[in-house]
Design goal:
The complex is a heterodimer of chains A (255) and B (143). Chain A is of the alpha+beta class and 255 residues long. Chain A contains ten helices and six strands. Chain A is elongated and about 95 Å long. Chain A starts with a helix and ends with a helix. Chain B is built from five helices and two strands; from the N terminus they run ααββααα. A two-stranded antiparallel sheet of chain B has the order 1-2. In chain B, 46% of the residues are buried. The chains are: A alpha+beta (255), B mainly alpha (143). At the A-B interface, α1, α2, α3 and α7 of A face α2, β1, α4 and α5 of B.
Chain lengths: 255, 143
C-alpha cells in the first residue's frame, strides 16, 4: 500500500473515531453554523438582486430590441450619425424626429431594408439628422443621438431609441431613459456623452438641422434626401412609399 | 455516496477557482473601454450582454466582482479546517445564487447568451457542489 493511501486510511479511521459523542456534538454545532451561513449567503444574494433590479427600475427602462439592433448594425462602419462605408458614392439623408411614431415605423420596416440592401453592400451610406418637430424633448433626444455618434454609437442609439419609443410628449424622454438607451447602445464613455449632449455646440447642431430641412422644403418627418455623382448636391426626395423607392433613388443618384 | 478525501476536494476547488479567475479576468479586460468578449461560437450574444445595463452592479463591473469572488473562493480552498469549509460553502452559495440570477437575466431579460458568462456559471456550480460536499462531510472534524 502506498504511503498516500495509508495516510488516507488512517485519516478515515480517525474520522470514524471522532464520530463518538464528542465528535457528533461538535459536528452538530458546526452544521447549525453552516445553516446560518447558508441563510446569510441567501440574504446576500437577495441584496445583490435588489441592487441589480433597482438600477434598471429607475425609469421603467428595460430595453427592447438590444440584441436585434446590435445584430442589424454589426459589421457596418459608423461615425457621427453616418452609417456605412465612407467610400460609398451615394449618401441617403434621413431627416427624422426620435419621438415621431412614423419615423419609428419607417426605421423598422423601410430603412432597415435599405441598410441591408444598399448600405451593407457599400453602395450607399445613410445619415440621420435630427429634424425636431415635436418640441423640446425631441431636441434633447436629438442631441443625445449626436453625442452617441461622436463615440461611434449614433446609429445604435437611434435604432434603440425607436424600438423603445414612448408616446410623444408624455415625458418619457428623461435623463434616466436616455442614459439607459446610451448604455444599451454601447456608448463607451457615458460621462463624455453626458457632457457632449448638453453642450451648446451639439444643441445648436440640432437646431440648425431644422433650418436645413426647411430649406429643402420639408415640413414633416421622416423626410429623405439623396446626394451622389448624378445629383446636384443634396436633393430632396418625394415621400417614399417603400424601401424600393429609396433603393431606386440611390441607384439613380449613383449615375 | 463516497466523498473524496478533503485534500482532493481542496485541490479540485483550487483548480476550478483559478479557472474562474481566468474567465472573469478575460471578461473584465474585454469589457474595458467599452469592448466585449469574443463569443467563440459566433453571434452577438457576448456583445449584447456586455453592453447591457446588467453588466454593472452599483457602478462596479460584474466581471470585476467575479474576480474578487473567485479570489476569495481560491483563498477558502487553500484554507484548512472549519474556517475554510464554512467560507468556501458560504461564498460558493452566494456565487451560485448570483450566477443563477445572471443566467435568468440573460435568458429572459437581455435575450442573449454570453458563452463566457455560461462558463463562469458552470464553474461556480462546480465550486458550490465541491464546497457543499466538503462542508457536509468534514465540518467539525480535525483537518
Amino acid at each position: 500500500m502506498s504511503a498516500k493511501k495509508e495516510q488516507e486510511k488512517r485519516r478515515e479511521e480517525r474520522l470514524q473515531a471522532e464520530e463518538g459523542a464528542e465528535g457528533r456534538e461538535r459536528r452538530q454545532r458546526m452544521i447549525k453554523l453552516a445553516s446560518a451561513t447558508a441563510f446569510l449567503a441567501i440574504a446576500v444574494v437577495l441584496v445583490l438582486i435588489v441592487i441589480s433590479q433597482s438600477q434598471t427600475d429607475g425609469g421603467d427602462t428595460d430595453l427592447e430590441g438590444t440584441a436585434e439592433v446590435s445584430a442589424a448594425l454589426k459589421g457596418i462602419d459608423q461615425r457621427d450619425l453616418v452609417l456605412g462605408a465612407s467610400t460609398a458614392k451615394v449618401t441617403l439623408v434621413e431627416f427624422g424626429d426620435l419621438q415621431c411614431p412614423a419615423c419609428k415605423s419607417f426605421a423598422e420596416s423601410v430603412v432597415s431594408q435599405v441598410i441591408d440592401s444598399k448600405v451593407r453592400s457599400g453602395e450607399a451610406k445613410i445619415e440621420f439628422r435630427s429634424y425636431t418637430i415635436l418640441g423640446e424633448e425631441s431636441v434633447v433626444a436629438g442631441a443625445a443621438a449626436i453625442a452617441a455618434g461622436r463615440q461611434g454609437r449614433g446609429w445604435d442609439f437611434v435604432e434603440l431609441f425607436y424600438r423603445n419609443q414612448g408616446f410623444e410628449h408624455s415625458g418619457y424622454v428623461t435623463d434616466d431613459f436616455l442614459t439607459e438607451i446610451a448604455r444599451g447602445a454601447g456608448v463607451p464613455d457615458l460621462k463624455q456623452w453626458n457632457a457632449d449632449r448638453k453642450s451648446k455646440r451639439v444643441l445648436d447642431q440640432v437646431l440648425r438641422t431644422a433650418s436645413e430641412a426647411e430649406e429643402l422644403g420639408f415640413g414633416s418627418t421622416p423626410s429623405f434626401a439623396v446626394e451622389g455623382p448624378a445629383t446636384d448636391g443634396l436633393e430632396p426626395l418625394d415621400f417614399p412609399e417603400s424601401a424600393g423607392s429609396l433603393e431606386e433613388a440611390i441607384a439613380q443618384a449613383s449615375g | 455516496m463516497t466523498v473524496p478525501a478533503e485534500g482532493t476536494l481542496q485541490r479540485v476547488a483550487t483548480f476550478v477557482a483559478t479557472l474562474g479567475i481566468g474567465v472573469a479576468v478575460y471578461i473584465a479586460i474585454a469589457e474595458a473601454d467599452g469592448g466585449s468578449p469574443v463569443c467563440l461560437a459566433g453571434g452577438g450574444g457576448c456583445e449584447t450582454v456586455a453592453k447591457s445595463s446588467h453588466s454593472e452592479l452599483a457602478g462596479a463591473s460584474v466581471a470585476v466582482i467575479g474576480i474578487v469572488g473567485y479570489a476569495l473562493l481560491l483563498g477558502a480552498a487553500l484554507l484548512r479546517g472549519d474556517a475554510g469549509r464554512m467560507a468556501g460553502f458560504g461564498l460558493s452559495l452566494v456565487g451560485f445564487g448570483f450566477s443563477l440570477y445572471l443566467t435568468f437575466l440573460e435568458l429572459f431579460v437581455i435575450d442573449a447568451i454570453c458563452q463566457w458568462c455560461v462558463a463562469s456559471a458552470i464553474l461556480m456550480t462546480v465550486l458550490f457542489a465541491i464546497n457543499t460536499a466538503r462542508m457536509l462531510r468534514y465540518v467539525g472534524t480535525e483537518p
